[in-house]
Specification:
Radius of gyration: 19 Å
CATH topology: Jann2411-like fold
CATH class: Mainly Alpha
Order of helices and strands: HHEEHHHEEHHEEH
Structural class: alpha+beta
CATH architecture: Orthogonal Bundle
Shape: globular
Distance between the termini: 60 Å
CATH superfamily: Jann2411-like domain
Strand content: 5-15%
Number of strands: 6
Number of domains: 1
Number of helices: 8
Length: 202
């Protein structure tokens, strides 16, 4: 979907990263994989409710998905994105989970009369089961993974202590967020230069 979400809004809601062009990337970034164990940013009902409320305007209307389905799709999407970045083949189970979730809610185009004339909309056929929001997220993952030109812009944050993913619309972008990882890396570089200078000082 084309409706945007700003990093400022995401951080105001208590999440360190988000506002990427795809909700699928924002969902993948709700787990921080560099820790042991990984940190799940939506592991409580309140955190999950806050995250889906934040994303709601970018997704088809309907009830939020159940937590088990969310974790399953998130794991599949993250595996597929990580596999691409690591130059390996994604797990067949992950790909099947993405495909099944995308297919669970069929869509069809429809015309709606407005004051400005006819407008095309997408109808999500939840009468067949599935969750429209999850199907939309899975559909975004399918579209990105199937688009080699856009997939080249998928990146992992340049901070080795961060696992967040983003689409580098600007090819010079290195960090998931300039105000967190960008600042940390700049401070670390400054500290490293200062220590090097101190070490060589007479």
């Amino acid at each position: 979907m084309s409706i945007s979400l700003s990093l400022k809004e995401v951080q105001a809601a208590g999440f360190p990263m988000g506002g990427e062009p795809l909700v699928a990337l924002d969902l993948a970034d709700t787990v921080m994989t560099v820790g042991d164990p990984p940190v799940d940013l939506i592991d409580t009902p309140s955190a999950q409710a806050a995250w889906w409320k934040l994303q709601a305007r970018r997704l088809p209307p309907g009830p939020p998905p159940d937590p088990t389905s969310v974790r399953r799709l998130r794991g599949a999407v993250r595996e597929a994105f990580d596999a691409h970045l690591e130059g390996r083949t994604a797990s067949p189970t992950a790909l099947e989970d993405i495909n099944a979730t995308a297919a669970a809610v069929p869509t069809s185009p429809r015309l709606t009369a407005t004051d400005g004339g006819l407008r095309e909309e997408t109808r999500w056929h939840t009468e067949y089961g599935g969750n429209a929001a999850l199907a939309a997220v899975a559909g975004e993952a399918v579209a990105l993974l199937g688009d080699p030109g856009r997939l080249k812009r998928l990146r992992r944050c340049g901070n080795p202590d961060c696992s967040m993913l983003f689409l580098a619309e600007n090819p010079r972008r290195k960090w998931c967020t300039g105000n967190i990882c960008g600042n940390r890396m700049r401070v670390a570089r400054h500290y490293g230069r200062t220590r090097s200078q101190d070490a060589v000082a007479p």
